[in-house]
Predict the structure.
Amino acid sequence: MMADRYLAFANRPLGRFLTGRLGLPQPRPLLRHVEGQPAVIGPVLAGAAPGGRLAAAVVATLAGTPAAMLFEGDAADWPGLAARHGVMAARFLPGQSGRAGSAVFDATGIADPAGLDALYTFFHRVIREIAPDGRIVVLGAPPETCADADARVAQRALEGFTRSLGKEARRNIAVQLVRVAADADAAALDSTLRFFLSRRSAYVSGQVVHVAAPVVDLPESAPRAHRGRRVLVTGAARGIGAAIAEAFAREGAKVVALDVPQAGADLLSLAQRLGGSRLALDITDPASDAAILEDAATHGGYDVVVHNAGITRDRTIARMSRAEWDQVMQVNLLAPLRITEALLGAGALGPNGRIVGVSSIAGIAGNVGQTNYAATKAGVIGMVDALAPRLAARGATINAVAPGFIETRMTAAIPFAIREAGRRMNAMGQGGLPEDVAETILWLAEPRSAGVNGNIVRVCGQSLLGA
């Protein structure tokens, strides 16, 4: 992985001076999660539009963390809710309360365009009071479920607001919109709110995530970590795949690392280091299904399957060979579809199971010389859309991540000018790390993320390309 020398230079005294005088980007290194840090970046500044329905869920999430709460406005009974849940709370006083680590605004009560004024009132007062590397989450309702046109218009407007706020906030502040269904309770929202208010979401911004009623009943004792869960990760020998496997193992999961036989040495080293097992298989061979199912049976099924394996064979369509087209299709799309069907058909995905695909920003925005790759990564999004209802009926979920520019050996080989453009063309002004993708997958795969189904989450620092 190649170091980002511009990022390092821009954060030295001389570099800050020169980049400032020349009007060049001045990215700051992201603060990422370190073991032992609080689950939520506090204190958390809370606000709501009149008629909001999620204030109690917000406070319930904070109750399980050491974060204190500041509150702005009286649209919700923040002091009463805080007292009920044992959360330390105080009224926010601009210029006196100190900076907030993060902010949550309940916009579910906005029922017409005029109600959007509540967004202006809250964020106009507080945006400068959010500390660098802070987090902002706006909670809304799914527009398609709104009772009338005015409410639908207003709730859809939240998307443009949050995406723009993410680009305005700067200072590595990440902004998300979470649309929460009316039948989703506090338990359904808990894992998502925790993730987006933590340092685990450092390179995720400008996203719209849907939270519905959990696909299974979630008891209060439902675990937040992955201890003891059985996890299959394909393409695990190096890069993003290795980071995913390492992240699950760090949380106590039993990891099965799968990669091609040619990567056998790296695969063996990874499995030994993580205390897991390995499968050296070519997933483009249909015969690999039997080996995967046999392994699943020895583990009592898999709780989580991460379809990470992927390759590129970049060339414009006019110059691309049939073999280059076929290879990318087989590895990136056809194999995940076939393996998923085999696992579901054999009942090899456990209760409250998770399937996570790895798409790409290329599958959303497209890319020159990547018609094959972009088609497969858009196809992964289609797989999520198609299978989400089916998985929900089985008490499981399927989601995908869509990484942007991630610092790996593959991106280190990109020509300098293209590599620099990829790093700077996002709201964070830098490339992400494999661990950013891994942390997002950990959240999607979490046992308490049972209300998160059918989502595509871009891990791209809010790329300036694509939707």
